[in-house]
Amino acid sequence: MPRKPGAPLRYREIADGLRRRIEEGEFPPGARLPTERALVNEYTASPGTVRAALGALRDEGLVESRVGSGWYVRSWRPIVRNALKRLSADQWGEGNSIWGVDIDDRELVADGVQIEHLPAGPEIVQVLGLSESDLVWRRSRRYLVDGVPVLRSASYIPDDLAHGTRITQVDTGPGGVYARLAEAGFKPMRFREDLRCRMPSASEMDDLQLAGSTPVVELVRYAYDATGRVVEVNRMILDASRYLLRYDFPS
Amino acid sequence: MPRKPGAPLRYREIADGLRRRIEEGEFPPGARLPTERALVNEYTASPGTVRAALGALRDEGLVESRVGSGWYVRSWRPIVRNALKRLSADQWGEGNSIWGVDIDDRELVADGVQIEHLPAGPEIVQVLGLSESDLVWRRSRRYLVDGVPVLRSASYIPDDLAHGTRITQVDTGPGGVYARLAEAGFKPMRFREDLRCRMPSASEMDDLQLAGSTPVVELVRYAYDATGRVVEVNRMILDASRYLLRYDFPS
DNA sequence: TAGTGGTCTAGACCACTAA
DNA sequence: TAGTGGTCTAGACCACTAA
Hints:
2 copies of one chain form a homodimer. Chain A is an alpha+beta fold. Chain A has 2 domains: 10-73, Winged helix-like DNA-binding domain superfamily/Winged helix DNA-binding domain (Arc Repressor Mutant, subunit A), CATH 1.10.10; 79-246, Chorismate lyase-like (Chorismate lyase). Chain A has helices at 10-23, 36-43, 47-59, 85-91, 122-128, 159-162, 176-183, 202-208; strands at 63-66, 70-73, 79-82, 108-119, 135-145, 148-158, 190-198, 216-224, 230-239, 243-250. In chain A, the strands form 3 sheets. In chain A, strands 4-5-6-9-8-7 form a 6-stranded antiparallel beta sheet. Chain A has a two-stranded antiparallel ribbon with strand order 1-2. A two-stranded parallel sheet of chain A has the order 3-10. In chain A, strand 5 (135-145) and strand 6 form a beta hairpin. The first copy, chain A, starts with 9 loop residues before the first helix and ends with a strand. The model of chain A has no long low-confidence stretch (mean pLDDT 87). At the A-B interface, helix 3, helix 4, helix 5, strand 7 and strand 8 of A face helix 3, helix 5, strand 7, strand 8 and strand 9 of B. Strand 7 of chain A pairs antiparallel with strand 10 of chain B, so a sheet runs across the interface. Chain A binds a DNA duplex through helix 3.
């Protein structure tokens, strides 16, 4: 049956109905929705239309699907990433958010570091002020919270800065990469963070086990030493549905 | 015809093919792709499958559809939003980005301010330290670049701070809301910005005329005076596909 | 007015889940 | 092994665009 002219969109009607039922508590966080086939009967619509409605709710971050199991109501409990921890700790405290976030007691766990010594891509080469033939060290790792992958990080350091330091090893020692750079005379004095938000590629979806239609944040951090040289570039991909990004700064 | 077991996903094959053709320059930025019906013939697939492929490319920000006209290759030219302009101007300069952004000469134009005097919602009330019955001033406006809406901003100021000042008028005078707050003895001394990234609601899609499946950034800025009181909350919705958000800070 | 993307129907088979 | 979401077929009519 074709659409009646002027009629409200069928899939939106179904999405609105389900959203209301979720908000009213008929389906609390974690609950399973009726199966697609059951919704087809209940709302007298075709499978594709019901899927479109569920897809709209997924886009809003309200529900997620698990293959072979069903559609579930999602609970959003964000990880608060505070880019300027030191500054905020003494001056701001932890309160004040319209999203009512609380102190985060969950642990961020890395699941293995990959260290590579390779020529960098053209973008990385350019911001590090290197030439195409120069080698860089790439330190890549994935982070998980409660066993769920939330973040992929890849750090790039020019060879002439990392050479002969523990930056080239799995365990970089106390203070990590930045402490080693400081010892080598390239202490990071300031940082820049550039953020983009977009839909993930297929490989990013696999890597972070993203539920369909979850956006990612692409966050690139540049570390500058006292001379203004970029001594490290860190490119991160975050599961946007799990993060609240926080920046505190003076007027 | 059903799927062959183990076969690569048909819609991904088509998406990969089109992506390669775009990257190789067969379809340059701004170009129109073949129609859906033409692609159905060319790739011998059904309409739904071709749409799924185009949808995947749209999710990556590579193409966008215009009703009644066709699918077009998108050109991404980000607006660089630097949260700490003063700091960055003297110390960082404008270079250094893996996205090769350049100085932005396009103008950000507001298309009308709505000023309302109303009781705020529970989240706003809480962060402003008010009670449910208190009134606030809400200043809402939309911003456009080259005629394209990119940002919706809604600023909330407690009545006892705005009362009797030009904050309650369309033209707030030189220095804007923050200058008026300073004159009233509530000068903003520091700021917090909280960012979330998610898919837009239906009304946000309309308001910002978002191409399907473009995420938004929900950015909330809190302004604190010297006593630590929140004197203003500004909730912004950004078209994520058009923005690069930049934060500079010391080590 | 011819052509376009948007929505919708009514099915089918697949890999996967959970008991 | 019964049931689930994921993908796919092969059509249809609609509002809208652009000439």
